[in-house]
Structures are given as structure tokens and as C-alpha cells.
Amino acid sequence: MLIFLAEGDMRRLLNEAEISSRSFFKLTDLTVKICCFVPSIFMIAEFLYVIFNRNHLLAFEIFTDICNEGYNIAEIIYGIFKYLKRIRLFHFKKLKILKFLCELQIGLFEQKCKLNFVLTIIKKFFL
Fold first, then answer.
1. Percentage of the chain with pLDDT > 70?
2. pLDDT tens digits for range 14-58
3. I need a labelling partner for 24 at 20 to 30 A (CA). Which of 42, 60, 108, 111 fits?
């Protein structure tokens, strides 16, 4: 989790590790997740995998689960963007996902995070 958050920057890695260890007096995956408040890498990976397999209802359920954990839309989109930088995909698919994320962020802030709007956007871009 720390390596994912640091994105190759050793100073940031040390800062995140120090914050987590001083706050909880131990350094675990859970303490890092609590201190940094970033959605789980596995949930983001599962969300993208489900979108690629065109299972829109399951993608919507995963997205609502991530939202119900208390993350705001900007944190979720930032987590998805960071994950996309790490995986190997065709450039066109990455651009399509980034377009989807921009549309999602704009639409959700306009719609005040109505989750039905998320489902329509997922269907629009990944049919």
C-alpha cells in the first residue's frame, strides 16, 4: 500500500510510513489505509476488471460499496487514475477510462453524487 501511495517517491514513502507509525505506534496495511484515506487497491482493480467485462450492475455495486466506506468521489477517481498509471493497457482504453472519469467527476458534482447517474455513465461509455 505504501509503494502504491508513494508512486516511486522515496520521500513521500518515508513521510507516509512515519505518519502511520507515529499515529498508531505500528506500521501495517490497515494503519496506512486509515491515515492516508485512499480506497483499497483491490476494490479499484475489481471495479476496473468488472467494467472491462461489461458487467455494469456489478460495477455500480462495487462503486456504491466504495462510496459507502466514506470515500468522496475525488478520492475514488484519484485512486483509479493512480491504478491506471501502473497497469498495461492499450492507450485507447486508458483514454476511454480517463474520459469516463472526467465525465463521472463533472456529472457527480453537478448531480450531487446521485448514484443512479453513475450507472448511466458506466453504460454510456462501456457498452
1. 61
2. 777 777 777 778 777 777 766 666 677 788 888 888 877 877 778
3. 42
More confident: 95 or 119 = 95
Instruction: Specify burial of residue 109 (Cβ count, 10 A radius: 0-12, 13-18, 19+).
Output: exposed
Q: CA-to-CA distance for 29 and 16, rounded, in angstroms?
A: 11
**Do residues 103 and 118 make contact, with C-beta atoms less than 8 angstroms apart?**
no
* 3 state SS of 90: coil
Q: How many residues belong to the chain?
A: 127
Domain boundaries, the chain: 2-36, 41-125
* Residue 70 cell numbers, joined: 466514506
Cell reading at 63 = 462503486
